[in-house]
Predict the structure of B12-binding domain-containing radical SAM protein.
Amino acid sequence: MTLKAVLVYSNDDGFSLGVELIRAAVADRLPPSRVEHRVWFHEDVGNLAEDYLGHYNAFMARLFDYRPDVISFSAFVWNHDEFTRMGRIVKRHLPDCRVVWGGAQANSRRMAAHLLREYPWLDLVLRGEAEDAYPDLLEHLARGGDLGAVAGLTRRVDGEPVHNDDPPDVDLGALPLVFTADRLPLEPILRRRPGAVLAYETGRGCRQKCRFCLYSAPKLRAFPMERIERELTYLLAGGIPYLRMCDAHLGISRHRAMGIFEIVAEHNRGTVVDVYPDVKHVDLDYVRAMNRAGCRVITLGIQSSDADTLQLAARRFDRQRFAQAASLIRRHHNHALAADIIIGMPGDNADKVRDSVRFAYASGVEKVHFAPLMAFPGTDFFEYAEQYGIEFFDFQPPLVVSSRGFGTEDYRRAMVFAGRIEALQDIAPTLLRCMIAIADCDVADWAERLDLGSGADPAPLIEEAELPSGARRLLLDGLAWDAAVQAQRATTAQDPPGLADGALVAGVAPDAVHWADHPVHLLLRDFTLTFDALARERQGYLFPRGGAVGYPLTGPLLAAYEAAAVGITVGEWRDKTRAGSATEPTREVCDAAFRILCATGVVALREEG
């Protein structure tokens, strides 16, 4: 009899690389006559107000129609509770169906035993990499074999959890291809989720072995370059909008990373490719190769800059090397650079978190992402939590609320501080950039004092602060820039009107121009500039409706602004602009300046006739 098996997964993008690798492995190793295998993507239907049970209804309809013999759930933090409810539904209505859990949420003997003791509806837990172990499990279930021979399986024997041997590392060179037209057509994925981010990996594992990280468990291994080239060529030719290479060390080695950049550069036709580079590999040639490939660095890992904390976490972190890599990426890579900091690490405390934030900004990072420490199953901080003084709420989510040296009060202080840093980054990013440009300006202290999340006006604090000569003006200009951008984002973007020679200027609004004593736009372009490098002169700025880019009021744009007057025609306006410019601009340059002035609300036109 054919075994009917289902693998269920759930995430925001509607795509799981791990699930697709498992699907391909089952298809290659088990004939359909022995195992009929299906993959179900479980997603919410509608919203809570309109249809809060819709997704369960859809799941149950599919479940009762197919009536699988075994159903497996790929579980992690974000779907643990949902899959718990679904597992109970399965066992209540199909008591003979075997319910299996795998995935990152089950990647631990301690967690597997906890799940089997807590959830009587759960039959089996599969730990570790599953491309070999899952097809082996289905094979044994199909022929009634001894489950004690399935590597990585945790099962009940006489009511108690029993762990089989851990599975060996998967041979990445032996895995079947996933990204091919026959195996994974892209069109259905993009139709279901037009903005889906497809994950890709060029290798597995991490040389760091940090005690808090899921990547630390498997051995560091690489996929064959031939496979990478073939799959990346297919993905990029398919025109996917977003691709994320989720390796802890892109390419595993610098030589392979450079080869991957060459592949992407050759085939990329507009896909946004996110990468996480190994800072040990980053130099100017690396950054230039990354730029040619159109790759973005989204975030770099700091976690903590404190030496004692890093030692407890078994994390090797070279502060100088990180700062050099961050500076190179920021200077030569035209994209916002962020860094990750963890709150709650053993050995850390609230003051050390502040120091890590200071280090991040001093290194050239533009935005800091905070994450409370989680004791993920399979990590040392989960398996040996007591050894590190780690206390977490529950097994799901394993949110750490205190650890050795990081007490409850520290946790509260650090979370409040993180909230204020995030508010500064979100509400006043230009003000933040101006602060970083001022030598000895303590951004961490300013973020806490300003408390922008409360809606308080920061201008009085800036006015009263002791600052170097001219620095107060720079901060106020940065604050005004942020206010202007927010105001423009709140308006509806409009196409500028036609520029027929006979069109009349109906109005000019000089108060739509923001005047500043420092070229703030230079700071937005070059993060490495300091306050002393900024020329102090009166500058005008325009902000487009619905946009975040400021136009400096200089050159032909300034000439067009000065030439504008109510009642003149566009033709007359063009003549005055040319006459007022240091160099006689072309008609196209004049029209571009006119359109900016119209789009930003400085000038209004009306058609004659």
Q: What stands out?
A: The chain has 23 helices and 23 strands. The CA atoms of residues 120 and 151 lie 22 Å apart.
